[in-house]
Design a protein that fits this description.
Length: 263
Amino acid sequence: MSEVQGTLEFSVELHKFHNVDLFQRGFYQIRAGLKVSPRVPHRLIVTTQDNTEECGLSSAGVYDGAVFSRIFQILYRNEEITVNDCMIFKVHLLLDGERVEEALSEVDFQLKLDLHFTDSEQQLAELATVPLISSRTLSLHFHPRRGLHHHVPVMFDYFHLSVISVSVHASLVALHQPLISFARSGKGSWLGKGSPESAADPSAVTVDNLVFGAGYCKPVISEVLQPAALRLGPNARGHFVSPSCGCQQYCPLLARVFPVSPR
């Protein structure tokens, strides 16, 4: 069985937060994280639009594999706040080269959105300690040829009645021979959570590791792999051409629905 590395990118944007009937005034924050099925070896890389790793009060950041939105203050009922925080979840998957499309369709992706709250400005100095008050999980069904494109309002529970509008776009961006190593964890753990870079022996670092990362595996071309590559080629082209054609057909439809921008 030949294995290939597939790379998916999930673009998530938090648009507007609407206070329907929150009981408390104070400071709120949305935290987003992507979970990948433990049955598939994978590596997950999380970044924000500005590639900010430090979490701040006025900008989104990455902390412990999740994206923290900027802090926003809610004072009034039916108040609407524009968040506009964007994030990218890049997932490297190890797939069966003989059934790439089926393997991608079977992977379970879940987007977890947490609502955090505090009424203390002093607690904002330590964002990681701001309490969780409500949580929602979205199941994402990715199709390798159509991708994934959704814009949905996510409502939190009755005791924290509020809505955040979320756009999610996902696409297959790369398909090739494995270039990174994938940790195969034991039963009951999330695969891909650990990072090979942190466990690398400094005395064994090569030029390839410095350029491509500690998890890089040098490609091996052999008579065994060549037939598999020839079989994969036509299917791989279809995985990238189909979404492109679909977008080209969909754009004119959107142009007729949405008003013309004044700019």
